[in-house]
Write a structure and sequence with these properties.
With 107 residues, this protein is of the alpha+beta class. The protein is built from one helix and seven strands, in the order H-E-E-E-E-E-E-E. The strands form two sheets. It has a four-stranded antiparallel sheet with strand order 4-3-6-7, covered by helices on one side. A three-stranded antiparallel sheet has the order 1-2-5, covered by helices on one side.
Length: 107
């Protein structure tokens, strides 16, 4: 967990977290897909992977809850800031990022 020495440190780190989360989406996320057929219907899902790091020095952020908005799919980043979310429904999706002590964001 991060401890803030002052409110100015918090104001600086909140934008850093938002930038880091955007970086995770743009640079670190990959996807793959698979198809399951049931009675002629095709349901396609994929996997989203990425990293969440600080904007300043690209240090990994662990314990960030990364969730696919509108689904029950989510993961928590590990010590390296990595996450993998499986069985994500096909299509354009929005991810939300939440870490205690930080402002949540979606991308």
């Amino acid at each position: 967990m991060f401890r803030f020495a002052s409110s100015s440190a918090r104001r600086f780190l909140l934008p850093a977290l938002a930038a880091a989360l955007a970086l995770a989406l743009l640079a670190g996320c990959g996807s793959s897909s698979s198809s399951d057929s049931t009675d002629g219907d095709t349901a396609t899902t994929g996997t989203v992977t990425g990293y969440v790091v600080t904007a300043g020095d690209f240090s990994p952020l662990s314990g960030v809850l990364v969730a696919v908005v509108g689904t029950s799919r989510s993961a928590v980043t590990d010590a390296l800031g990595a996450f993998t979310i499986t069985s994500v429904p096909a299509g354009t999706r929005t991810l939300s990022f939440t870490l205690s002590g930080y402002e949540s964001t979606t991308r």
